[in-house]
Structure formats: structure tokens, C-alpha cells
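By way of example, what follows is a protein record of this kind.
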Amino acid sequence: MSEVTETLLHDKLKEYFGFNSFKGNQEAVIRNVLAGNDTFVLMPTGGGKSLCYQLPALMMDGVAIIISPLIALMKNQVDAMRAFSSENGIAHFLNSSLNKAAVNEVKADVLAGKTKLLYFAPESLTKEDNVAFLRKIKVSFYAIDEAHCISEWGHDFRPEYRRIRPIINDIGRAPLIALTATATPKVQLDIQKNLGMLDAQVFKSSFNRPNLYYELRPKHDEMREIIKYIKQNEGKSGIIYCLSRKKVEELTELLVANDIKALAYHAGMDASTRAANQDAFLMEEADVIVATIAFGMGIDKPDVRYVIHYDIPKSLEGYYQETGRAGRDGGEGKCITFYSYKDIQKLEKFMQGKPVAEQEIGKLLLLETVSYAESSICRRKTLLHYFGEEFTSDNCGACDNCLNPKPKIQAKEEMQLMLETLQTIGSKFKMDHLAAVIYGRNTQMIKSYGHNKLELFGAGHDHDEKFWGAVIRQALIRGLVEKNIENYGLLAISPAGEAYLDKPYDIQITLDHDYDAEEEDEGPVTGGRGGGGAADEELFAMLKDLRKKVAKKHGLPPFVVFQDPSLEDMAIHYPITIDEMQNISGVGAGKARKFGEEFIKLIKAYVEEKDIIRPQDMVVKSVVNRSGNKVFIIQSIDRKMDFEDIARAKNMDFDELMTEIEAIVNSGTRLNIDYYINQVVDEDKAEDIYLYFKEDATSDSIDEAVEELGDCTEEEIRLVRIKFMCEQGN
């Protein structure tokens, strides 16, 4: 299409879509497509990618073929296009969801010249009758949406995307536009090579989403933290991502039990339930959707206010794509991820059994994820660097690392040592190999390259490999070290790194987080303090006001009543009895009795009004819907009631009570029944039974235990087995 005037382009934008102006690179992209050139578009979620092919399709002769990976996504796009036009046939899709009559109707509209956009899944495009049909029509251009699916290095690789180019050649050549919301330099090169569009003009928008806040938390007490967070953000829309369908179901059930309007979404559900749940979320009949990564592609909900990752994703591209579903309207968007290295090990296990090449790629992508999670560098800086973009500010002001920075340490000599070692071993090795050489770990690979004989081998043994990993990461961010794009993961010293070695200067780095070290053993989940997490700001402010009044009444300075850390602790744990108040940091029995009453009254009213699930109530709340007996039993054991009295109160015999307690314990609740065992089981016997289950038992069978232990009764064995399960299993 010949050069289009600016006026005409803006007129068409207004006429078809009702917009007065283009966003970002849209106009330049559209002009390039109209000029008949191949075009590569990298534009983050919410940047307006669809318009880049929709407007040219409406303006050009012929039909634009749009290749898209999801049927639901196609339907959304077709419905949106029809809403802009009086002609229903303007946009169609051809996929497996249509019956023969519908397919014929679509083909009739296309041949009659009514259709400007025709959507295909790559699988449908390969069908011979579709290829034969498309040879009959004039194709204005081909648009490949979600183009990262072409690359094995992308977060959503689909082998059928690799076959698009040969099919296009078969149908008839026309310009190409490839679009994606996430692509590292490696993935970008992969896409362009595979589609034969290395000469395409590339339009890359910034991947920075300034309104998003990124935070990683240790995966400790995460269920309570999630419930508390949702309760504090009542009425706001949120998505929670889990890796397994089972976890999606469990978490949804728990949220619903705690009066949160939550629905599940995963590929194992039937299509109609899935669609109904998605619609309920879009229509705000549900506040939270708990989902696997099957959810969200092309979901145009602009006001998702938080995205929580219960499990960390397999790649940073996946993470960026999923967090990008928050705050698409430019408003608040909180991205909170719960991280434990154990989850990474679990993901590595899932890979075993896949082809070796796929495992290699998966491991390298996971390494990037670990690097992001554990690093103390600005999250935004790390993410943008991953996508080949530089973020120049030292503090983004909207991530946990910038808002709570770790102290920096001087690392001029360490940086020199790392760069010298990299220069010596050359650019054929990955980060873990380089760190191992500096530290002096004598692996088989290091021996095979003779790196254990180098003068620099082990020169950095004063620090561990985790430390050297942090130094290498900071060097990458500063551009002193580069990653090879062709052979992903291999490191090379950059010209800036060479210059640093010639003329070293002071350099400060922050050490990585060690999330697993931050975890503590979980206490009993019924009663006790438990919990953790951020203080409830509204309650904290109310407690401060009350402290002022109480202090004035007693003629004391406010800090004498309770200090700020004590009020913060109250705003985390919500104590509503004097006993609970005594467990608050900096509050002894005397202070609790002297000043506690009014604070307890305020907290109790606040908890009731806001319908807050206190950390110590949460597990009870999760089972309360299933059985009133369970709650009563848990509370009675907390109060150290005799089992005979508990059974009598609930009209049970002793055996029924024991079965109920075993069920509670097996579902993960930790009970302390020492007080009762001490009364009814001889100390030596109890020790023998405990040791039997710990060291000798091959199963939890009571019959086997009776046979093995000889003079112990079934009742004694069951009691000690409950204690053992609580202490070792829960």
C-alpha cells in the first residue's frame, strides 16, 4: 500500500476504533505493515499489540491471516472486531470448535469479500483443505500473535508454531508481522530465524511497567499470608498462580472456607466450568481466580490489582507475562511471589524424563529465575536487563529490594578477581562453572578442562559460590560481562569489563537473599502466635490513637504504655484475650493486665467488623465447614481437657474420638497431646513406641506395632503414634 498520510491514518483510527491518538510505537508499526514490510513487534501486555494488525487489515486489500494459539483468545478478538463494525463477517475464525455448516458460512463470507481478518490456530492452518482454500484468496499479510511460542527458549513453546513458515510458503508469500509481549534477545533471534524474517524492522517498546510493585517473600506460612493479604484488599480483583491443579483446588477450597469469593481455573476442568469461572471473574462475581498458567492469555481485564505466585514460575518470561496481568489500566498492581529453593528442586525433578536438550534449556531458564529471586538488586533492573533493556535509575521505588535495601559491601578486588578468572578461562562457560573455579571446587568438568591447575583456581575460597554468583550478576547488570545470545548462558568479558581491568574503580554490591535461612520452624497451627507478615496499617493507626488516650489517662508518655514494635505485633496477630496479649512482643503479664483490656476490646471489635481471619484461627476456620466436632476437639486439646471428658461432651465412645483425632492430625493439623500421654502411658513405654515408629516401623500399621512391641496396648500405641505424626510429620 502506498504512503498513507498522517491525517488518513488518524481518521481511520477514529472511524474504526474511536481513538484520537496512537499509543507508543503503534503508528510506526502500522505504517511499516501498510508499506508491505516484514515487522517484528515486542510490546508488553496492555501496550496495544492487537491494533498493530487490526487497523492495517481493515485498510488493506485482501484478508489478513492471524495465527493465534488459543481458541478463547480468538473468540475474544473476533467479538471485539465485530463490536467495532456493522458487518458481522468482518472477522472470523476457523478452528476445531466449528461445525461443518459454520465453516461453510465463514468461507462464504471470505470469498464474498466481507472478511478482513481470519483467525487460525497453527494446527488448523496445516490442514490441507484450509491451505487449498487460502490459495484461492488474496492474503494482505500474515500476523503471528504470541510469537514467543515458536522458540524452545520461550515460556510457552509449541512445536506446531515451528511449521508456520513452510505453510505460509505453500499458501503464498505476503508480508509478515510477528508480535509478542515477552522475548529475551535469544528468543527474538530464534523467532526471526524460524520465520525467515531476519531483515524485518524491529519495534521494541519498553518492558518497564512503572505501576507494578514486585515483591518476593519466603515461602513460610504462605496460606495465612495469602488470606490475610486478600482480606486487607477486600473487593479488589486478584489472580493467584499455582503450578499444580491439585494446589489450585486446595487453595480455592481454603479461600472459600474463609469467606473469600474465589474460583478455580485449570486445564483439568471441563471447558464449560472453566469458561463460566472466567466470566464470573471478568463480571466481578468472584474477586479471586486461583489458576494454573492455563489462565490469563488474552484476558482483557484491566483492573486486576494483585497477582500472587504461590509457586515461582519455570522462567522469568513466564513470570513477567503473568505479573503483567496486574494493573493494565495503569492503576495499582501488586506482584507478590512466595519463594523457596525447594520449589526449584521440585521443578528440576519434573524435567527428568524429558529429552536432554529440553532439560538443558529448562535448567538454564530455572537458573535465571533463582538468580532473580535471590538477588538483592532492584527487581525492575534485573527483569528489564533479562529482556535486553537497561534501567538507569538506582532505585525504582516500587520493589522490595529498593524499599528495603540490604547494606552494600565494597567489592573492587572481588570484581577484579572474577573478571580476571573469566578472561583466563575464556567465553565457553556458564555462571556456575566460573563461580566454582574462583571458589576452588574440584568438579569433573573443571578437571577435564584443567582449570584446577590455574593459578587463580580457588583464589576466592574466602567466600562461598553463592557470593561469587552475586558478583557475576552485578557484573552482568553493569555490562562488564555479557551473555552469549547464540549459545545461551555462556559468559564473556565485555569491552567495559576489559576497561575495568585496565583501570579498576571502587564498586559496591549487595549480597543475595537467603530465603530458606529466613524461615523458622512452624509452631503448632492451633493457638500460639504463628502468623507473621506485614502489620495491618489501619489497625496500627487505631492502636496508636488508643495508646495516646490511655497514656493521657494514666499521666504517662505513650511509649511507657506500649512501644511501637508491640503495637505492630498486635496489628499482625490480633490478640483478643489477656493470654494472647501476653504473647505479644514486649508485653509481659503485668503490662497485659494493667493496660491490655482496652486494646483487646478494640482489636476484638475490629476483627469482627472486618471479618478478619486471625493467624491462630485460620486452620480451625479451614476445617470448620466440614465438622463442628473437629473444632471442638482441637480447642479442647488446646485447653488440655481429658480425652474421656471430650468424648463424653460429644457423645462419642473413646475409639470414635481417637479416629477423629487421627483424621485431624493426618490432614496436617499439629496437636500437643503430651499432657494426656503423661497421665496414661508409662514414660519408658512411650519412649519405646516413639522410637519404634521413628526407627523400625515400615508402615503406620497398629497391628504390626502391637506384634512388634509385645506388652503395649493398642490404645497406648495409637496415642504415641498421634504424638509422633504431629512432631515428625506436621
